[in-house]
Amino acid sequence: MTKQERGTRTRHMLIRSAAEVFEQHGYERTRLADVSAHAGVSTGALHFHFKSKAALADAVESAASRSLHHAASSVGRHPVSALQTLTDISHIFALLLDRDVVVRAGVQLGCDTVRDPTLNFHREWQDCVRRLLDRAAAEGSLADDVSQQDVTTTVVGATMGFLSMRREGGEWLTHRSLTGFWRLLLPRVATPPLLGSLAPEGTRSVAGAFPSTARTVPERQPQ
Amino acid sequence: MTKQERGTRTRHMLIRSAAEVFEQHGYERTRLADVSAHAGVSTGALHFHFKSKAALADAVESAASRSLHHAASSVGRHPVSALQTLTDISHIFALLLDRDVVVRAGVQLGCDTVRDPTLNFHREWQDCVRRLLDRAAAEGSLADDVSQQDVTTTVVGATMGFLSMRREGGEWLTHRSLTGFWRLLLPRVATPPLLGSLAPEGTRSVAGAFPSTARTVPERQPQ
């Protein structure tokens, strides 16, 4: 392993350690010393990679953002209807948020009012939902009597609700809850000819896309 | 005004002041001295009514809980279908959360992981949704092909999402968003004969019930 590879690996490990500490204590109560202790490195080693707590939080947000975009674009590559893509992306985001502490901490940091976050998950997700509903409308796959605005409000509201209730420890942002949500919503939103081909539980692209995105930030390893 | 009435009024004023401080700074960062300064009373006067910060938080939660129950039972008295009652209660809760700082702070304190809260809004709301859907099923007003569990998940998810996004400063927990949500959902959930009589924007009972509940905790007044 070259020096550069070791540096990149250490940086990723520090980002994951920081995410674990940020998730547990929140941005404000986290000290850089907590992160270095948790990562098992000296404060000097941590400082070599990240000059401040804000720089570390920015790096966590950036890593989370990359994972989310990578996952969304993996799903988007498959040639299915826009409504199925939307369903699949919601499932893949739920999987990422469940399994990847960096994604969870990045999204949580983005809600923080103390600093100026670089990732606004809620805004980006809302834009993504809007774009996909525009595409669904262009495809002619939205039922005549539904308003795109109402669908956006409902999809963003419900998914952000599942996310907020996940923090309370409940079983909310799960494949099962999301499947129930889409099972209820899709027959109202999609035109009858499309409906039969839609899978509220997600298509194979969800399962296919996830393994690669889960590895964008490697697990913490001993130094 | 008797001594007892003055005492009650002061207690209500302190609860409102505490709610304002808790909402702004969160439970953990709030000190009793902040509340007494904000209320314009001495720390001794505050201590006469509330022995600790936890007692003050409990009082805010209890007042919020009373307001929410009072509002829900006002709506429940009107002889409309269970689905309309559910729609109306969601609107009245949104109004309360928008207008009453004690309700907002009480609900927020209930999400706090630092102490053991007495109000769990999310749990109580979920129970309320479940009960009303059981009633709707008993009335025969639920469409055959929807699962009550999916409706509960979607209603609780979306409304809790609107609530969590309200904290980010967006226009989410509003009459407009909720009306859009119900406009989308009710045609999927209700049987066709009932649908024509349902008002996604809420019935007159929403407007009728709110003024009385808004006054359960009086505005802060000078001592």
Structure write-up:
Two copies of one chain form a homodimer. Chain A is mainly alpha-helical. Chain A has a single domain (3-214), classed as Orthogonal Bundle (Tetracycline Repressor, domain 2). Chain A has eleven helices and no strands. Chain A has helices spanning 3-29, 32-39, 43-49, 53-76, 82-99, 101-110, 121-139, 148-167, 175-189, 192-195, 204-214. In chain A, α1 (3-29) packs across α2 (32-39), α4 crosses α6 (101-110) and α4 packs antiparallel against α11 (204-214). Chain A is elongated and about 60 Å long. Residues 211-223 of chain A have low confidence and may be disordered. The A-B interface holds A 111, 122, 145-147, 149-151, 153-154, 156-165, 168, 170, 172, 177, 180-181, 183-185, 187-189 and B 111, 122, 145-147, 149-151, 153-154, 156-165, 168, 170, 172, 177, 180-181, 183-185, 187-189. Chains A, B: Pfam families: TetR_N.
Radius of gyration of chain A: 19 Å
Largest sheet of chain A: none
What would the principal axes of the Cα set say about the shape of chain A?
elongated
- Helix share of residues of chain A? over 70%
Helix run count of chain A: 11
Structural class of chain A: mainly alpha
CATH class of chain A: Mainly Alpha
Count structural domains of chain A: 1
Sequence stretches where pLDDT stays below 50 over 5 or more residues of chain A: 211-223
Give the ordered list of helices and strands of chain A: HHHHHHHHHHH
Quaternary: homodimer
The name of the CATH topology of chain A is Tetracycline Repressor, domain 2
Mean pLDDT over all positions of chain A: 86
Distance between the termini of chain A: 13 Å
| CATH architecture title of chain A | Orthogonal Bundle
